Amino acid sequence: MPSLPVNGGPPTSPFFYKNPQYAICLDPNFIIDKQKAITAQTEVLVTYKSTDEASVRVFLCKAGEHSGRATGVDETNIVNQKELKEAFRPIEGVANGIITGAKPYTVVVSCFDRSMPIGGTLTLESDAPMLLKPLPEEGAGFIKQVFSGSFEF
Fold first, then answer.
1. Mean pLDDT of the 47-67 span
2. Which of 99, 125, 103 is nearest to 28 (CA)?
3. Positive or negative: CA dihedral 69, 72, 76, 78
4. What is the mean predicted confidence (pLDDT) over 105-117?
5. What does the pLDDT read at residue 3?
6. Using an 8 Å Cβ cutoff, are 22 and 107 in contact?
7. Any alpha helices (H) in 1-150, and if so which ranges?
8. In what order do the strands lie in the sheet with 92-100?
9. Distance in Å from the first CA to the final CA of the chain
10. Torsion angle, CA of 88/113/22/47, rounded to 10 degrees?
11. Structural domains of the chain, with CATH
């Protein structure tokens, strides 16, 4: 995995949305019975090892409505409710849970201290073939337009 340069801080930070995020889902190339895949449950383990001394956490969430990105972490979107109470840990963050069906989920890598660099290795383990892909940064693909002059309504 390439390094993860942007750190948005913990879920309480207004910059949380800047944290690196990844989409995960069942690999459709290995789904034979599409009907069963809708309700199939798959256990996943996501581990992040920092190359720095940062205190980190990994959040496994239901995919957000806006391009899959999670805008926060709370009891409505986290997969494993127990992980809401876990503390940031030095160097290594772990998230696990059972995901259902061929729905998309989001993995968020977060450092406690926004000033710490974020870089490391993200690993996904599961009992079924999965896809993992980085999500574009918030606002990526949007065109900034600058207007000048006056407008009449």
1. 88
2. 103
3. positive
4. 89
5. 43
6. yes
7. 34-39
8. 92-100, 41-50, 120-126
9. 51
10. -30
11. 16-134 (2.60.120)
Report the greatest alpha carbon distance in the chain. Answer: 60
CB 39 within 8 A of CB 103: no
Residue 8: how many CA atoms within 13 Å on its side-chain side? Answer: 20
Q: Which amino acid is at 60?
A: L
Q: Which two tokens stand for residue 24?
A: 């995960």
Distance, CA of 153 to CA of 143 (rounded, Å): 24
Amino acid type, 63:
A
Q: Are 78 and 84 in contact (CB under 8 A)?
A: yes
Q: What is the pTM for the complete model shown?
A: 0.82
**Within 10 Å of residue 116's Cβ, how many Cβ atoms?**
16
Q: What type of residue sits at position 22?
A: Y
Grouping H, G, I as helix, E, B as strand and the rest as coil, residue 78 is strand
The amino acid at residue 108 is V
Predicted confidence (pLDDT) per residue in 9-39, tens digit: 899 998 888 899 999 988 877 777 777 777 8
Q: Cα separations (Å) of 121 from 29, 71, 74, 127?
A: 25, 22, 25, 20
Is residue 110 helix, strand or coil?
strand
